[in-house]
Write a structure and sequence with these properties.
By secondary structure, the chain is of the alpha/beta class. It contains 14 helices and 15 strands. The strands form 3 sheets. The chain has a 9-stranded mixed β-sheet, with helices on both faces. Strands 10-11-12 form a 3-stranded antiparallel β-sheet, with no helix packed on it. Helix 1 crosses helix 10, helix 2 packs parallel to helix 3 and helix 6 runs parallel beside helix 8. The chain is globular and about 55 Å long. Bound molecules: iron/sulfur cluster.
Amino acid sequence: MGENGTMRGIYVHVPFCVRKCGYCDFYSVVDGEEARERFCGLLLQELEILLRSYPGEANVPADTVYFGGGTPSVLGPERLCRLLAGIRSRLPVAEGAEVTLEANPGTIRGEDFFRLREEGFTRVSLGVQSFLPATLEALGRIHSVDDVHAALENARKARFPSVGIDLIFGNPGQEETDWEADIDCAAAIHPDHLSAYALSPEPGTPIHGQIERGEISVPSDDAAARMYETARRALASAGYRHYEISNFAMPGMECRHNGKYWRREGYLGLGPSAHGLLFPGESAPLGMRTENPPSLPEYARRLDEGRLSWVEVEARSGEDAWKEFLIFGLRLEEGVSLAEGEKRYGPQPRNLLEAVDRLVASGSLVRDRERLRMPEAFWFVSNEALRRLA
Ligand code: SF4
């Protein structure tokens, strides 16, 4: 077992997309088949070097594997199955593990779902973003609304235990009624899991540039806050539990893998730009953060030299660990257990205790015996409160 008797997760960053969307700054490239094939070899090479450097890691079972990106589905089912089998042959993956694939509805065919399901994928997360063609176009997405319906139907036919979708609100030119229509469409197709993110065009992306130059406009902060409330209300009445600031699930369908980030449990991060949290024992008892370079050539160069691709490795102090525990854990509806924090990391540092007291006094956090949580009214502006703990 890993830290605190929990099993760990494995995150695989697949750094390919068919085309870059106008708002995105995740690391991905549009390289073709040759690069995709080479990446699969590199990823397993990375895992082998990691296990040679930290042999104890080979004994920690994983109960989640998550293929994110980028657009993992562009690898195609054969490569994805090969990667999963390669991971399983090098590390123990528990029976009943949650195995997620992020998929772009425009890059996955009906039979692909059956092949992936056969190999042990259990969960598919579709990057839908909107059900309105004009919004998809404004975001620079490659898929159509028909692709979304076909992907959903095929995932269900292939008997995926969990099918989720991602939506974005606060999009260029989006009216509040457009978002209401998106939420109605989402509720009508009954995904098991739904993530709703506010658009945040990163500096350097085309949409950010267009907003800066006044060529397009996005809804005001007040309108985006109302859109968030619309989603909360409509999805609650459709039976979803709003279990994390941006995530909704039917009961029991919460994402187990992302839960590891929020609860500060261990996970390996493989692939360019992937981050990890390892608990390698005495050398870093409170955890060690790892970070791969956001560059496929640099990642390949380091691995070809026979060394780990990490550009940053940082053992966490008690204060770091506490901050991470609070900042990620307070995103959850359940909040955090302060007794659990003390058990793991020792007494809470005084400066953090004072920052928490101030947030409790202002109403941004609520302390209920040994639990601390953020009231739902503050979730849309949670970053502001959480920044005070950083
Ligand atoms: S498909 Fe996803 S990762 Fe790729 S560019 Fe679009 S938003 Fe970014």
